[in-house]
Amino acid sequence: QYVTYTNSNTGKARKLATIRSFYRYFYKKEMLENNPALLVELPKITEKPITRLEVDEVVKLLDLVENADQLT
Predict the structure, then answer these.
(1) What pTM does this model have?
(2) From first to last of its 72 residues, what are the pLDDT tens digits of the chain?
(3) Structure confidence at residue 24 (pLDDT)
(4) Domain spans of the chain?
(5) What is the DSSP string of 1-45?
(6) d(CA 16, CA 28)
(7) Among candidates 49, 38, 39, 43, which has minimal Cα distance to 6?
(8) Distance between CA atoms of residues 70 and 20, nearest Å
(9) 16, 42 Cβ separation under 8 angstroms
(10) What is the dihedral of CA 15, 17, 18, 21, to 10 degrees?
């Protein structure tokens, strides 16, 4: 059984930015006549909602840190 992994749009954008930087370097050094990476569109990146702890969760977390013996 094979598992297929896909990249999120954020991962795709990060990898494409790396490729663009790679080609831009060689284009500036005049080792390439054009930059084909500029033809590839960046994926749309949507903002994820921020996950916050509730007040009681923060209190529990701080209580655990005070009693560090429970963390090990």
Answers:
(1) 0.56
(2) 566 677 888 888 999 999 999 999 999 999 999 989 989 998 888 888 889 999 999 999 888 888 776 555
(3) 94
(4) 9-71
(5) --------HHHHHHHHHHHHHHHHHHHHTTS-S--GGGGSPPPP-
(6) 18
(7) 43
(8) 48
(9) yes
(10) 160
